[in-house]
């Protein structure tokens, strides 16, 4: 494999030469679209802690899938969805702000970390197999996982498109939305299931420890660019795609992991936008 050149077309052909990179690009694109869309509402609703908890649940879920001799992706989906439902049913955000939900999130997080420790001790494989759950395995995704990822992402995007308008209303002003007949609590539970699906998908790329690189940072950067909901949503998806594509491309030509580059591009972009916005406010004042 030769290094990158100034010939963009030749570099692109080299990226697509191997089947594992084709799978990685397809999966990364699908995951980035879902993560960017769901992530916008995560930031808007202030549920980053819940998303973090679901990412930690992904570790014992993937380990359980391996122990059961099934796909780690299946374990991720089952555990993350169960945790999302648990947070939704145990938390009562309308009656007690975010305090009750935070308590439910913390309880589930502690239990999931305990399960992760148990499955780690039971895991008979090498430590490298466990590390892959923590930092992502996108360059080793099978054709079957690509198909499952596409199906789950399509289901999640369709569900989000159905509930997007009432979810936006309930996220901005839940009390008024409930008074207008919007099923705020049901939407909250349904949205947490969508977050669980997005987390299970994104773990394949960046792992459980770097999940915010796709779920939160693109959305946070998008909100620095626009306060308009639908434009912000589109920007969040676009930035998630950009970070994923750049991360995969740069990692292909280096010895460093994909997750590092995706996280670095995402954080650098957010930092620049935040500093630029602060400078503009200082000039206006």
Please, could you describe this protein's structure?
- The protein has helices spanning 8-15, 19-45, 48-67, 72-90, 93-96, 99-122, 127-135, 143-172, 174-179, 184-206, 212-215, 217-225, 229-252, 258-284.
- It is mainly α.
- Helix 2 (19-45) packs parallel to helix 8 (143-172), helix 2 packs antiparallel against helix 10 (184-206) and helix 4 (72-90) runs antiparallel to helix 6 (99-122).
- The longest helix is centred in the middle third of the chain and has 30 residues, at 143-172.
- It is globular, with a radius of gyration of 19 Å.
- It starts with 7 loop residues before the first helix and ends with a helix.
- Mean pLDDT is 81; it is low at 93-97.
Oligomer: single chain
Decide which structural class fits the backbone: mainly alpha
Q: Return the string of H and E elements.
A: HHHHHHHHHHHHHH
For the biggest sheet, the summary is: none
């Amino acid at each position: 494999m030769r290094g990158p050149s100034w010939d963009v077309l030749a570099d692109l052909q080299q990226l697509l030469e191997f089947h594992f990179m084709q799978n990685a690009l397809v999966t990364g694109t699908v995951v980035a679209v879902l993560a960017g869309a769901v992530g916008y509402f995560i930031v808007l609703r202030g549920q980053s802690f819940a998303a973090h908890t679901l990412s930690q649940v992904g570790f014992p879920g993937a380990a359980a899938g391996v122990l059961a001799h099934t796909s780690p992706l299946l374990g991720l989906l089952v555990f993350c969805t169960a945790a999302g439902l648990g947070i939704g049913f145990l938390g009562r955000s309308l009656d007690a702000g975010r305090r009750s939900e935070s308590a439910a999130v913390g309880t589930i997080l502690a239990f999931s970390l305990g399960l992760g420790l148990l499955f780690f001790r039971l895991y008979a494989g090498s430590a490298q197999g466990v590390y892959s759950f923590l930092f992502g395995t996108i360059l080793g995704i099978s054709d079957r996982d690509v198909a499952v990822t596409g199906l789950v992402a399509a289901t999640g995007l369709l569900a989000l498109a159905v509930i997007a308008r009432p979810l936006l209303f309930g996220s901005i002003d839940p009390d008024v939305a409930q008074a207008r007949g919007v099923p705020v609590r049901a939407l909250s539970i349904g949205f947490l299931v969508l977050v669980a699906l997005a987390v299970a998908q994104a773990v394949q790329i960046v792992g459980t420890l770097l999940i915010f690189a796709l779920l939160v940072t693109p959305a946070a950067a998008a909100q620095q660019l626009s306060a308009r909901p639908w434009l912000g949503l589109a920007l969040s998806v676009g930035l998630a795609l950009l970070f994923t594509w750049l991360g995969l491309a740069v990692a292909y030509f280096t010895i460093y992991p994909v997750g590092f580059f995706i996280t670095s591009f995402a954080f650098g972009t957010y930092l620049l936008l935040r500093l630029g916005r602060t400078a503009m406010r200082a000039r206006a004042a």
